[in-house]
Design brief:
The complex is a heterodimer of chains A (about 160) and B (about 425).
Chain A (H helix, E strand, L loop, with lengths): L1 E7 L6 H4 L11 H5 L10 H4 L5 E3 L12 H8 L4 E4 L4 H9 L4 E3 L10 E5 L4 E4 L5 E3 L5 H8 L3 H8 L5
Parallel strand pairs in A: 1-2, 2-3, 3-4
Antiparallel strand pairs in A: 1-5, 5-6, 6-7
Chain B lengths: L4 H10 L8 E5 L2 E5 L3 H11 L9 E4 L9 H17 L2 E3 L6 H9 L5 E4 L13 E4 L2 H10 L1 E5 L3 E7 L8 H12 L8 E5 L1 H4 L3 H9 L8 E3 L4 H9 L19 E6 L6 E3 L7 E3 L10 E5 H4 L2 H11 L9 E5 L3 H9 L2 H7 L3 E2 L20 E4 L15 E4 L2 H10 L10
Parallel strand pairs in B: 2-3, 2-5, 3-4, 5-6, 8-9, 8-11, 9-10, 14-15, 14-17, 15-16, 17-18
Antiparallel strand pairs in B: 1-7, 12-13
Helix pairs in contact in B: 2-5, 6-8, 11-13, 11-14
The chains are: A alpha/beta (about 160), B alpha/beta (about 425).
């Protein structure tokens, strides 16, 4: 069970919003890079987010670059899951590969600051603030196994190959 | 039931009867990174593997921050060069050009599966390769295993009839298409291009279109491999890499979109999303302070030829910085030989080294507060060109050159 607060963002949050190219010189210094997480979408996010909180987006979350640093800095901020109405393909794969769950659900029903409780096994998001319960789409089996191992590299170290 | 291009390639590379929706494990024919995604890829690789599956089909490109604007990025370059020496993989260093252009010129073959740690890896779909962008962990595993897992995508067939009018180019076609279906209109799908306008289209134009497939969310943008492909490969000294490739006539498509090329106009994407398109003529009067011609989208010889044709004997507006970034050293050398560079510099342009240029805001052309740029690149996201207070418009090389002359967004047909 995951519990935390929702940080609500709009549609079309790109990888440039999450961690812009102008900080590429910090990519081999991850603790410094992570200070700029989501800076161009909400400059106060990095100072307000607490371990366990959730990033809640709208349509096409994570569009743009293939930079795995985007889900990485979100994970480093302590975020325990990303919720969105739809998510861009590469970002989805990257987040799962880092062991960060991405859940597809109707995020219009969640407001900024709501307290959420997520049951990954049951596939439900309970919004404690407004009392609503949302269900999220099934994560494909191959990705679920990668998520279970905490990411792609631990998965490959354990199995030595893809097991589909 | 016949197969789409994506199903054909993934069947061949997975040894299965791959159909849309299937999950397959496919052989990877080429895997690569660039200098902003490479260090993380190498570290992930080193955490899980000891040696590369195929060193001579593994490439590290130094193109995004080339030459480096900072010590930290120069150190990343040193790290990549050391990994190349130790692992035996290929390195393409500062000044060689943008990874996607070099993949097209030197490495990609029709029917290949290619994974790159850069979202515009889709560019090689222009010559019939199933080429897709992935993150560092996925590419690290492709480095080590020589395989990756893929969900076989459903396909949107884009049938392009007619002839492009004067001043209209493949860039206008892909901007129009993205405006039509939206920035997430093809998420997880393959785009497959066909029709008479595609049969006549040069590989340069095909690469421009394939390059932007990801801006509609697509996994790949695929073109058939045909006589134009063969000529391109022969010109690169790689005629032996040619094989014809086409979809089956009875392939199953999720959606078919018909476009009449002769009805297209010069098209521009407005800030801050690629699908926010409008005809260039409707944006007349929009002042710009910078024009960029280049990048993996439009930095090829044909693009510079179009720009030189419009700029010849004229001067860019004094209020505009006109920045040119050729896509590769070969492009630069050919543009010098043909006199395009002389023409463009005489028009007031600044020539950057072959590479990504200012596209991703890392160096050489960041925007100031409230400045606007017309760029031939593929993205206009907020903050993309180094400043969240900048505004980016996307257009063709013709629109860019015409806009540079006037200092405002201009339909190129007005100056041709």
């Amino acid at each position: 069970m995951l519990k935390g607060r929702a940080f609500k963002f709009g549609d079309g949050i790109s990888t440039d919003h999450i961690i812009p190219g102008r900080y590429a010189s910090l990519r081999s210094n991850l603790p410094e890079l992570a200070k700029h997480v989501l800076e161009d979408a909400d400059p106060t996010f990095a100072s307000r987010v607490k371990p366990g909180d959730f990033v809640v987006g709208g349509q096409n979350f994570g569009l743009g670059s293939s930079r795995e640093h985007a889900p990485l800095v979100i994970r480093m901020a302590g975020v325990s899951a990303i919720l969105a109405k739809t998510v861009a393909r590469i970002f989805f794969r990257n987040a799962i590969n880092l062991g960060l769950p991405v859940l597809i659900c109707d995020t219009d029903k969640i407001n900024d600051g709501d307290e959420l409780e997520i049951d990954l096994a049951a596939g439900t998001v309970k919004d404690i603030t407004n009392g609503q319960v949302l269900t999220f789409g099934k994560i494909p089996d191959v990705m679920l196994k990668i998520l279970d191992e905490g990411g792609l590299i631990p998965y490959i170290k354990k199995y030595g190959d893809f097991k589909i | 039931m016949g197969k789409t291009l994506a199903e054909k390639i993934l069947s061949e590379k997975s040894g299965t009867e791959a159909r849309a929706g299937d999950i397959v494990i496919a052989q990877v024919d080429l895997s690569f990174v660039q200098d902003t995604t490479g260090p993380l890829t190498v570290r992930q690789f080193q955490a899980g593997f000891k040696s590369l599956a195929s060193p001579r089909r593994t490439v590290l490109f130094i193109d995004h921050a080339a030459p480096s604007p900072s010590g930290a990025l120069a150190n990343d370059h040193i790290f990549l060069r050391a990994f190349a020496r130790q692992s035996g993989c290929i390195i393409s260093d500062v000044g060689d050009g943008v990874c996607h252009q070099l993949v097209a010129e030197e490495f990609a073959r029709p029917g290949d599966v290619i994974v790159g740690a850069d979202s515009h890896t889709v560019t090689a779909g222009g010559l019939g390769a199933f080429a897709t962008g992935m993150g560092s962990s996925d590419v690290a595993v492709a480095f080590g295993l020589g395989r990756t897992w893929l969900r076989v995508p459903e396909t949107f067939k884009i049938e392009v009839a007619g002839n492009f009018q004067k001043g209209v180019s493949p860039k206008d076609l892909i901007l129009h298409l993205i405006g039509l279906i939206g920035a997430d209109g093809a998420t997880y799908k393959a785009l497959e291009f066909g029709g008479e306008a595609v049969r006549r289209m040069s590989l340069s134009g095909r690469f421009t279109i394939a390059n932007m497939a990801v801006e509609a969310g697509a996994k790949v943008g695929l073109f058939p491999s045909d006589e134009m492909t063969r000529k391109f490969l022969v010109a690169q000294g790689r005629g032996k890499d040619y094989q014809p490739l086409s979809p089956d006539a009875d392939a199953l498509y999720e959606r078919i979109i018909a476009i009449d090329a002769s009805a297209l106009e010069p098209t521009v994407s407005r800030p801050h999303t690629v699908d926010n398109t409008a005809p260039a003529r409707e944006l007349k009067g929009t002042k710009i302070q910078q024009v960029v011609i280049g990048t993996c989208t439009n930095g090829r010889l044909e693009d510079l030829a179009v720009a030189a044709g419009i700029l010849k004997g004229k001067r860019a507006a004094p209020s505009v910085r006109l920045i040119i970034a050729p896509a590769s050293r070969r492009v630069l050398l050919e543009a010098v030989a043909k006199g395009y560079i002389k023409t463009i510099v005489e028009a007031g342009a600044i020539i950057l080294p072959p590479g990504c240029g200012p596209c991703l805001g890392l160096h050489q052309g960041a925007l100031g507060d409230n400045e606007s740029c017309l760029s031939t690149a593929n993205r206009n996201f907020e903050g993309r060109m180094g400043n969240p207070k900048g505004f980016i418009y996307l257009g063709s090389p013709a629109t860019a050159a015409a806009s540079a002359l006037r200092g405002e967004i201009t339909d190129p047909r007005e100056v041709m």
